[in-house]
Amino acid sequence: MLEPGTITEILTALKAAYPNAQTELEYRTPFQLLIATILSAQCTDQRVNIITRRLFHDHPGVEDIARLSIAELEAYIRSAGLWQTKARNIMKTCRILIERFGGEVPQTREELMQLPGVGRKTANVVLANAFDVPAFAVDTHVHRVANRLGLAKSKNPEQTEQQLMQAFPEHLWKDAHHWLIQHGRRLCHARKPQCGRCPLANLCLSAPKRRSDQEVQYRQEDSQDPYR
Ligand code: SF4
C-alpha cells in the first residue's frame, strides 16, 4: 500500500489535471441517469448522449418509456452495443420501478442491483451522482489506473472498490472516480499509456523511469545483502 503522503500527492495531481471532471452522460433526473448508465455498457458516453437526447426528448419519464413497445424502444437505441439486451433490460427495469418503487429510482445499492441491467458499478454511479450517496464506482478505467498507480493491488473491480474506499476519504470518492476515469481516457490508455506526458509519472509505480529506478535500487540492495 502507498504511503498516505503519496496518496495525497496523487489526489492533488489528479485534481489539478482534471479540475472539472464529472460524468459526461447527459441527464436531468435520477431515472434518466439510470437509463443512460445502463446504455453505457460497452458504448461511449458520446454515443449514449446522442441516443438519449432523442429518447428523453420524446419519452422523458419512466411511464413514458414503459408505454413503448420493445420494437419502438429498440429503434431508439439501435446504435448502442448490445441494444437488444439493453432494450429488454430497460423495459423490465421501467416496469419494476413502477410496480415496486412507485415510479422512483431506489436509493440503496441492494435495491438498485435488483433491476435488470444494473450491476454494482451502475448502482454506484447512480448513488453517487444522482443522490450524493457515498459510493466508489469502479469501471475498467478506474480499475486499470488505480492498479497502475499503486492505489490498489487487486484482481477485480470489487476488490479495487474496497481498496480505494480505504485509501481515499469518503467525501472525495465521487470526484476521485471521475478523475481516474478521465486519466484513463486521456493518458493512461489500456494498451499504450502516455507515461511521457503524464503529470503523475513521478508518483506512479508503473511509470517506466520509476520502475527502472526501483530495479536499480533493488539490484544495489541485493548486491549489498550478506545473506544473498
Ligand atoms: S505514469 Fe503511465 S502508467 Fe502511470 S498513471 Fe501515468 S500514464 Fe498511467
Helix content: 55-70%
Query: Outline, from the CA principal axes?
Result: elongated
**Helix-strand pattern:** HHHHHHHHHHHH
Instruction: Give the N-to-C terminal Cα separation.
Output: 26 Å
Averaging pLDDT over every residue, what do you get?
92
CATH class of the domain at 30-131: Mainly Alpha
Share in β-strands:
under 5%
Largest sheet geometry: none
CATH homologous superfamily heading of the domain at 30-131 = Hypothetical protein, domain 2
**Based on the structure given, which CATH architecture of the domain at 30-131 is correct?**
Orthogonal Bundle
How many E strands? Answer: 0
The structural class is mainly alpha
CATH topology of the domain at 30-131: Endonuclease III, domain 1
**What is the number of helical segments per DSSP (H or I, 4+ residues)?**
12
- What is the CA-atom radius of gyration, in angstroms? 21 Å
Low-confidence stretches: 214-228
Features of the shown structure:
228 residues, mainly alpha, Endonuclease III, domain 1, 12 helices, 0% strand, disordered C terminus, binds iron/sulfur cluster
Report on this model:
It is a single chain. The chain is elongated and about 55 Å long. It is mainly α and 228 residues long. The protein has twelve helices and no strands. It has helices at 4-17, 30-39, 45-58, 62-66, 70-77, 83-101, 109-112, 120-131, 140-149, 157-167, 173-186, 208-224. Helix content is 61%, strand content 0%. It binds iron/sulfur cluster.
